């Protein structure tokens, strides 16, 4: 059995679509946990309707928490989960009808393989095209790789990972006082650092639209600054384990946030728990190269868009 988990913060209007996609599943071997992250809308009423629905064939658990972010809701869901795998289904998304069936089948295929922390299918847009383009391996097949080897197979995009519950209990999300956001990658990277891999399948199981107000759409420097301890945690982890581009992306974000918080350069290494020489190499050598490459990439992007008649960044 798998546990499908949905965190929701003022997203009541979309929950019926999530619910309907669960009712349409070809397999009944799952439960659904909905966690209300301190909503002020009518999520309670929607959840009551689900609880009282005589057509519901799966176990449904509705929990509420004080607003603390998706990562805290994940920790709570893991505590209550009865399944062997946890699949996070966001409140503005839905599953294809065979998603649970496939994940249960994949879970059985990795039974006994202690080094595999999760199985994953593709996230696709409503038109069926994979988010981020086609993976770099054949359809209806799989590859095994850690989170830091995803570039090799063109898997550096949102994917539909279902992690083993026993692994998630060993790797809870860090919770920092006063912060309400920590990217899921903070835990996925830690799991990868310890040698676990994921079995990635070239098979769509999850439909996403990235609606306005969702976490993916609402990224900003302000959020990074507000959740600075989490930013430090993830940046430090990626510096230890990540490939160069990922490492420099987070190091760049960290320094922007540190500047906003008026943290002096000589003090920043301590926030990342890295030696001063490592910090200064990243800052004086790697970061300028990364910045130059980023600027060149944006210029090329602008030129291509203008040639195609699309608005560039300057046009909005």
Features:
316 residues; alpha/beta; 43% helix
Write structural notes for this entry:
There is one protein chain. 43% of the residues lie in helices and 18% in strands. It contains 11 helices and 9 strands. Strands 1, 2, 3, 4, 5, 6, 7, 8 and 9 form a 9-stranded mixed sheet that branches. The longest helix is centred in the last third of the chain and has 32 residues. It is globular, with a radius of gyration of 21 Å. About 2% of the residues have low confidence.
Q: What would a concise description of this structure say?
A:
This protein is α/β, with parallel strands linked by helices. Helix content is 43%, strand content 18%. The chain is globular and about 65 Å long.
Write the layout of secondary structure elements.
Layout: E1 2-8, H1 12-23, E2 30-37, H2 43-51, E3 59-65, H3 70-80, E4 85-88, E5 94-95, H4 99-109, E6 116-124, E7 142-145, E8 159-164, H5 165-170, H6 185-193, E9 197-207, H7 221-226, H8 228-241, H9 244-260, H10 265-272, H11 276-307
Parallel strand pairs: 1-2, 1-4, 2-3, 6-9
Antiparallel strand pairs: 4-8, 5-9, 6-8, 7-9
